[in-house]
Design brief:
This protein has helices at 18-27, 35-42, 48-57, 70-78, 81-108, 140-151, 155-163, 168-173, 185-212; strands at 7-12, 31-34, 114-117, 132-137, 177-180. The protein is of the alpha/beta class. It is globular.
Amino acid sequence: MTDHPIIVGLTGGIATGKSTVARFFQDLGVVVLDADRIAREIVAPGQPALREIVDLFGDAVLTDDGSLDRPALGQRIFSDPEARRQLEAITHPRIARTMWQRATDAVADGHPYVLYDAALLVETGSHRLMDSLIVVDCPEDTQLQRLLDRDDLTEEDARARIDSQMPLADKRAVADYIIDNGGALKHTEEQVHTLKATLDAAVQQRGTTARET
């Protein structure tokens, strides 16, 4: 076993089924760290990040109970790149530190690696920091239909959301592993089982090589 955490990135596009794949991995005992969940935790009431956000943007980004008003904050930074950069300077380092600490704790508990589930790994370049990268993929027409069914959108709005993201082809191009989630869930689950075995073997081989050097 290595003395530092092995972190496998998990990403995809909107409505490709990334959360489903994460759940399948969790069912197999893999520790999955959710970037969205960590992001919410670090801005909870009483956390230093929330105080810094309020200092920067004012009380208008708080709800009546003192929690972060995400829609209000989103409106504030939507058309202001500098405000977005300032927000990211507050949140991103804390997210990274929390993720790394939890990955380290998982390794100490005997887990050979963790999955880091994050939507924007490739867009931010963070995939380069991962030991490997899994991209969850599906055909665009499947992606569109899932989005229509899930979010009750018009087709125009759904297409606009898909088009606003990095093309899946660009993510596939930098992936070490691709999960095709365009068919039956059983097929997706089988791919996860196969990939877990591959990851387990790769990590074991890495540990063997490290001990021999």
